[in-house]
Amino acid sequence: MQFLLLLLLFFAPRETASIPLWSERWKAASLVVAGLLIGVGLTFGISAALRLGRNLTPLPRPKESGKLVETGPYGLVRHPIYTGVICMAYGWSVLAMSWLTIGYATVIFVFLDIKSRREERWLVEQYPGYEEYRKRVRRLIPFVY
């Protein structure tokens, strides 16, 4: 499903007759904001994957032999790889200067939020310290959510 949503983000229409692209006067600002969002997203995603090390799995279920990681980007948010994907999706949307693409990025955000909730049920079962960690650290947006 994630893959299909990313295809939507990159290849779906960016404008319609009633929802045009942003004005060209916003191009310079959009390049700066997009660069920042994509840079933050890449940093979060890559550093989180590296921090997980052998705990990293393509599936949302934690490995049986895994350990709870609470440092690095995991000290800022509980799902930093998802945070990275979300930042990059919004960065791409700003780069595309498209309200529709921002809508697609929002669908990705909602999907990953729902997915993280399901994943957290498994994390609570697997790691005794996860409940306390969940009380201290926000889900997807540092200090906010």
UniProtKB/TrEMBL annotation:
UniProt KW keywords: Membrane, Transmembrane, Transmembrane helix
Bilayer topology annotation: Multi-pass membrane protein
Protein name according to UniProt: Isoprenylcysteine carboxylmethyltransferase family protein
Localization (cell): Endomembrane system
InterPro entries linked to this entry: Metal_cation-efflux_comp, Phopholipid_MeTrfase
Transmembrane segments annotated in the record for this chain: 28-50, 97-114
Origin: domain of life: Bacteria
Organism ancestry: Bacteria, Pseudomonadati, Thermodesulfobacteriota, Desulfuromonadia, Geobacterales
Any one Gene Ontology cellular component term annotated for this protein: endomembrane system
Gene3D superfamilies: 1.20.120.1630
Coarse class of the protein's main subcellular location: membrane
